[in-house]
UniProtKB/TrEMBL annotation:
Protein's name in the database: DNA primase
InterPro entries xrefs: DNA_primase_core_N_sf, DNA_primase_Znf_CHC2, DnaG_primase, TOPRIM_dom, Znf_CHC2
Top-level division of the source organism's lineage: Bacteria
Ranges of residues in domain Toprim: 270-353
Keyword line: DNA replication, DNA-directed RNA polymerase, Metal-binding, Nucleotidyltransferase, Primosome, Transcription, Transferase, Zinc, Zinc-finger
GO molecular function: DNA binding; DNA-directed RNA polymerase activity; zinc ion binding
GO biological-process terms attached to the record: DNA replication, synthesis of primer
Organism per entry: Stutzerimonas kirkiae
């Protein structure tokens, strides 16, 4: 049992009335002042000397010195340990609003007696296991550590615990039994030892484990197991490194490994996924693949499993054992046996060293990732038997052609269950009732002389994967090549073990564009794998062509604008034009800013807005917002910037002296450069002043020539113009910077402060919450309007030309 929190102990001491508890046990109390007295139960006496204080909820005997809290009373009077006392008080004692306070042995839950040697003993043993499973199931719901373990393993489907009656054993089962020195207590403990729940020492066999009961299917392969608990599986909650050496992570009852977990998945005779462990099987189930069963370890595919396959007659089995030496060996042996029984077999391959649960916890969308692995499951062959194998109603002929089918991509949707983002789509969840859709694959296994079309994929680490027959390619580092003149990568090729040869691999890093390095790789890999150079050369050619396409796409993405201007829909463009053509645009602007939560500051907002719009001009304005600390200068700047398109504004908290010189040449052109505090750019003040005055920055710096490797002088140029917006709390500001900026000061009057407080209170109302939602629509409208603005030369009366912004 996990350590009891101190807060829980204090709660029981405080909330369980000691007076009511003692009265419920049949003791006679007498009132004496504020306290109650009684004859001490711990020693013989004629005059009452045991005093109970209702105020402190404590007892004290002036005769023998016994004293303590309600927990001490239960431990001493019942002769139990502290955890047992806590359990008794939790279950039997009256807490706030309850009248039940008795803590007596008679409340212990007696499990059904087992009549040893009788014909009904198996039924009674099943009933006993059912009672134990129900207790563990109720225990799990109240055990945060067990629920946290399920969450850590990604087993968070809301129906999982109830559907499979998952439980948790934490050493509290014996607390619910009659006392060990009584006849009933001895009998029930012997019964629990007989079925394997208790060890000979009296401790729970599955203590500290997540408990998964294996329940027989009514109308299943074994009629005697219908709706009975035939086995309990336990998985220790402790991390592997904390489990003592020599102790297994997986525990079962001493009884034979009977039953088939989730036998309902076999009903219908379609496809079924077979996992190595129950945790892996539940991972598939939570991802929406309900047609899944589990073996009890690599060597745990037992007689009951074969009987269930014969009874239900599935046509295809996908073996999803762990991707390690033991799992691969067991999958190969089992696959051969299944094919001998006339069943079509596929092998699902996880990344090396992973199982289903570990793989699902490494990917962002387990349902989609597992579906893709199922789609790429390797076909191991159709069953070949002497004449004909009959499984229930399904007949599989030895001469029947293998259908060109394999698991299709199972696309999952989180819309089925909002509480569980990985829930499968309805069609995937109902897979136990109907077969999954199938997709074509080659009719026969691929030989060395025939290479199938490439089937490239990408794992979670970004490695490029290719499977060709029994050869598996993995390419790393291809994303680093952003120049069309080189293709330096790390390439691994491996071959699966077969009856003719052992598994082998070869790995090296080289430039795929270098013919000599490519030829050397093919030659060495051919020697290591025992495969002809012609086949490896053909495979490597496919890899090279695929990488060229990926590299070209990566280069285009790198050269694409970092912040492309979004394309407006016709509806958005029309709404933006209506805003710009509004006859009272200034009043509309002030009203929209107020609806966005800005209080007052109408003149400053309008000035800041016009200055931000001037970014489109060849000589934009610069704004410096000055105020004392926490007066609202940042709010004013943010209110204006939020109405500007995101791709046309750049915001920094601080800048170093040289940082501006190394921006992209057009990164600042006709954009807004906003700095949170003027103090954060004092080192870059010189560059800012030049950028504002000259409209561009240039710097000469030493760099290495990419061709010769010699040091050369390189020129960096950053083009303007750029609109500057800064805030400051300083009183004395650099005059050269001050001369280039429009200085705005914040209204810090008492009336403005009261208005701000009123606005803050308004935000907590329903209207305020609705206004927050409306703010997004207003912001988007103004940003779209800004995207339509262009600088145009407009001629007025006379011969003068001025620039205005028009649509």
């Amino acid at each position: 049992m996990a350590r009891i929190p101190v807060a829980e102990l204090e709660r029981l001491k405080r909330e369980v009335s000691l007076v009511r508890l003692i009265q419920s046990q049949g003791h006679e109390l007498k009132k004496r002042g504020k306290d109650w007295v009684m004859h001490c139960v711990f020693h013989e006496e004629k005059t009452p000397s045991l005093s109970i204080s209702p105020e402190k909820n404590l007892y004290h005997c002036f005769g023998c010195g016994a004293a303590g809290s309600v927990l001490d009373w239960v431990m001493k009077t019942q002769g139990v340990s502290l955890p047992h006392a806590v359990q008794l008080l939790r279950n039997d004692a009256g807490l706030p609003g309850s009248e039940k306070v008795g803590v007596t042995r008679s409340h212990a839950r007696h499990l059904p007696p087992l009549a040893a040697g009788s014909a009904a003993s198996e039924l009674e043993a099943a009933a006993l296991l059912q009672s134990v499973a129900e207790f563990y199931h109720a225990n799990l719901k109240q055990s945060p550590e067990a629920l946290a373990y399920l969450e850590s393993r990604g087993l968070t489907h809301p129906e999982l615990v109830e559907h499979f009656q998952l439980g948790y054993a934490n050493k509290t089962l014996t607390y619910r039994l009659p006392a060990g020195h009584t006849q009933a207590g001895k009998q029930v403990r012997q019964q629990l030892q007989a079925v394997g729940v208790l060890r000979s020492s009296g401790h729970e066999h599955l203590n500290g484990c997540l408990v998964v009961p294996v329940i027989g299917l009514e109308g299943g392969a074994n009629a005697e197991q219908g709706r009975r608990v035939v086995q309990l599986y336990g998985r220790r909650l402790q991390p592997n490194h904390k489990i003592p050496a020599g102790q297994s992570r997986h525990l079962y009852l001493a009884a034979p490994l009977r039953g088939v977990w989730n036998e309902a998945a076999l009903v219908g005779g379609g496809e079924v996924i077979l996992c190595e462990s129950l945790i892996d099987a539940m991972t598939f189930w939570c991802a929406g693949f309900r047609h899944v069963i589990a073996a009890y370890g690599v060597n745990g595919f037992g007689q009951d499993h074969w009987q269930a396959l014969k009874h239900h007659g599935p046509r295809r089995v996908v073996i999803a054992y762990d991707r390690d030496a033991a799992g691969d060996a067991a999958a190969a042996t089992l696959g051969e046996a299944l094919r001998g029984a006339g069943i079509e077999v596929f092998r699902l391959l996880f990344p090396q060293g992973l199982d289903a649960n570990a793989f699902a916890r490494q990917v962002e969308n387990p349902a989609q990732a597992l579906g893709e692995l199922l789609q790429r499951a390797l076909w191991q062959g159709k069953g070949v038997v002497a004449d004909e194998v009959i499984f229930a109603d399904a007949k599989i002929s030895a001469h029947e052609e293998r259908p060109d089918t394999v698991f299709a991509d199972a696309k999952m949707s989180a819309a089925e269950d909002e509480t569980f983002p990985l829930a499968a789509a309805p069609q995937a969840a109902a897979v136990s009732d109907s077969e999954m859709p199938l997709a074509p694959v080659p009719c026969v296994p691929v030989s060395d002389s025939e290479t199938p079309p490439e089937q490239f994929s990408e794992n979670a680490q970004g490695d490029l994967l290719l499977a060709v027959a029994d050869r598996h390619w993995r390419v790393r580092g291809w994303k680093k090549n952003l120049g069309p003149e080189q293709m330096r990568v790390n390439v691994q090729v491996r071959r699966e073990a077969s009856e003719q040869a052992e598994a082998a691999y070869y790995v090296d890093s080289f430039d795929l564009y270098a013919a000599k390095a490519r030829s050397s790789y093919v030659k060495q890999a051919s020697l290591e794998l025992g495969v002809s150079e012609e086949l490896l050369k053909r495979d490597l050619g496919q890899v090279l062509l695929k990488l060229e396409g990926l590299q070209e796409a990566a280069i285009r993405a790198a050269l694409a604008p970092k912040n492309p201007t979004p394309t407006l829909s016709a509806e958005d463009e029309q709404s933006a034009l209506e805003l710009l053509r509004a006859p009272k645009l200034i009043e509309r602007l002030e009203a929209d800013l107020a609806r966005c939560g800005v209080v007052g500051e109408a003149s400053n907002l309008l000035a800041g807005y016009l200055a931000a719009v001037s970014r489109k001009l060849d000589q934009p304005l610069a704004v410096l917002i000055q105020s004392s600390s926490a007066a609202g200068k940042s709010s004013l700047m943010d209110a204006v910037l939020n109405l500007m398109p995101e791709e046309e504004r750049i915001q920094y908290s601080a800048m170093t002296g040289q940082s501006l010189f190394y921006l992209g040449e057009t990164d600042l052109q006709h954009r807004i450069l906003a700095i949170a505090e003027e103090e954060g750019v004092r080192q870059a003040a010189y560059a800012l002043k030049l950028l504002q005055s000259d409209g561009e920055l240039t710097i000469a710096s030493t760099g290495k020539d990419e061709t010769t490797g010699n040091l050369v002088t390189k020129q960096y140029r950053v083009q303007g113009p750029v609109m500057l917006m800064l805030t400051t709390t300083a009183i004395d500001i650099d005059e050269e910077l001050l001369n280039r900026c429009l200085v705005l000061t914040i209204n810090e009057s008492r009336e403005q402060t009261e208005a701000i407080h009123a606005a803050q209170r308004h935000k907590q109302t329903l209207d305020g919450l609705l206004a927050d939602a409306e703010k997004q629509a207003i912001t988007r409208l103004h940003q779209n309007a800004q995207r339509l603005l262009k600088p145009l030369a407009v001629r007025e009366k006379g011969d003068r030309f001025i620039f205005r912004l028009m649509v």
